[in-house]
């Protein structure tokens, strides 16, 4: 399944660059958001099964913040020192490297059969938290660029409310949780978030509301069809992988030659992933070195959230050349996701007992 998902990611990314999907992009984005919401609802349901108090996540939040800020600072520095970018565009591009792609990561780890491991349980927390950190980083930058507008503060207020509700009222909603029902919830959430965006200009993504909804639901209520031969969730995750690649905008490098572009993209990708590999120095008392290395590598995948930040940059008309390099780096990380997960599998594979 990991191989299939990797091929779908690669196929979607390549096809999206070779052919013009601009006319269909709004529909593709809606379908991608519905699939992402479905994945995050399931992750929230799994997450809500942990019997931990809100205060116990304080250390995880600090670690997730550091793991988000380090890639942003490293890439910001690269843009300013090597490309002499203006600080506003450099900051926005740097923030795009902060979040892990939660949807891609969770789908891949589950497909690899790693959903019961310490790495998955910890990545599940950190990936959601670093998306929250990205929003917290992005909001003051938007205020600096465009002034203190009410919708920036409204975004912060809503996200904080969703996160609080996820912990305060988890497992309190006795609604059906079959795959079909989760798909319906995902559709309703996507439409609701889209309407909020359209009517109020609040930049709210579906990821955190869907995670909250999964936390509120009582898990394992009405999920009998999970044992059937046809797995709706595998189909939805496959569609998500394909459409994430298709929705990547066309990448134009401008005046840079391809050799120079490739060099910048490789360095940015290395710096971004080095920032995430900081996690190898954390959790030393609760996990082995291999598990911590696996956690750091598992957090490498980038995708829909980072791309959303870059699209905001395009809408502002700043950092066009930097935007292209950042998109190419995100696309490279996207294509390499299967490789990252394969390394995680190898690190977590138990050694055979000596004869």
Structural commentary:
The protein has 355 residues and is mainly α. It has a single domain (2-15, 23-348), classed as Up-down Bundle (Na+/H+ antiporter like fold). Helices cover 70% and strands 0% of the residues. It has 15 helices and no strands. It has helices spanning 2-18, 25-47, 58-82, 87-96, 102-111, 118-146, 150-168, 179-200, 207-216, 232-246, 258-276, 289-298, 304-316, 320-335, 337-348. Helix 1 (2-18) runs antiparallel to helix 15 and helix 3 (58-82) crosses helix 4. It is globular, with a radius of gyration of 19 Å.
Q: Could you give a quick summary of the protein structure above?
A:
By secondary structure, this protein is an all-alpha fold. The chain has 15 helices and no strands. Helix 13 (304-316) runs antiparallel to helix 14 (320-335).
Characteristics:
mainly alpha, Na+/H+ antiporter like fold, single chain, about 350 residues
Q: Mind telling me the C-alpha Rg?
A: 19 Å
Any idea how many domains?
1
Q: Please identify the top-level CATH class.
A: Mainly Alpha
Proportion of residues in β-strands: under 5%
Uncertain parts: 224-230
The whole-number mean of residue pLDDT values reads: 81
- Largest beta-sheet characterization: none
Write down the secondary-structure element order.
HHHHHHHHHHHHHHH
- What CATH architecture label applies? Up-down Bundle
CATH topology: Na+/H+ antiporter like fold
First-to-last CA distance: 32 Å
Tell me the number of helical segments per DSSP (H or I, 4 or more residues long): 15
Secondary structure tally: strands: 0
């Amino acid at each position: 399944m990991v191989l299939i998902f990797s091929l779908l990611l690669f196929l979607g990314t390549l096809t999206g660059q070779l052919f013009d999907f601009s006319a269909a992009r709004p529909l593709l984005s809606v379908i991608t958001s519905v699939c992402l919401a479905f994945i995050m609802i399931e992750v929230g349901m799994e997450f809500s099964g942990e019997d931990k108090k809100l205060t116990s996540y304080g250390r995880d939040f600090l670690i997730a913040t550091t793991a988000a800020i380090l890639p942003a600072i490293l890439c910001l520095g690269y843009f300013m020192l090597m490309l002499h970018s203006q600080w506003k565009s450099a900051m926005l591009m740097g923030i795009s490297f902060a979040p892990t792609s939660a949807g891609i990561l969770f789908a891949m780890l589950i497909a690899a059969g790693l959903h019961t491991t310490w790495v998955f349980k910890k990545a599940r927390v950190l990936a959601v938290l670093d998306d929250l950190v990205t929003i917290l980083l992005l909001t003051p930058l938007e205020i600096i660029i465009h002034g203190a507008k009410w919708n920036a503060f409204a975004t912060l207020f809503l996200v904080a409310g969703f996160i609080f509700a996820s912990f305060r009222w988890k497992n309190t909603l006795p609604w059906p949780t079959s795959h079909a029902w989760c798909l319906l919830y995902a559709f309703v959430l996507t439409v609701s978030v889209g309407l909020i965006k359209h009517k109020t200009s609040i930049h709210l993504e579906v990821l955190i509301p869907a995670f909250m909804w999964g936390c509120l639901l009582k898990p394992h209520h009405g999920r009998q069809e999970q044992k059937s031969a046809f797995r709706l969730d595998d189909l939805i995750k496959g569609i998500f992988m394909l459409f994430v690649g298709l929705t990547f905008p066309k990448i134009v490098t401008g005046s840079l030659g391809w050799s120079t572009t490739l060099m910048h993209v490789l360095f940015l990708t290395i710096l971004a992933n080095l920032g995430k590999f900081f996690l190898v120095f954390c959790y030393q008392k609760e996990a082995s070195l291999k598990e911590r290395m696996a956690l750091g590598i598992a957090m490498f995948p980038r995708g829909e959230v980072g791309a959303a930040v870059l699209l905001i940059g395009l809408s502002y008309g700043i950092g066009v050349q930097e935007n292209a390099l950042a998109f190419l780096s995100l696309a490279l990380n996207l294509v390499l996701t299967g490789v990252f997960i394969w390394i995680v599998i190898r690190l977590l594979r138990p050694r055979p007992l000596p004869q």
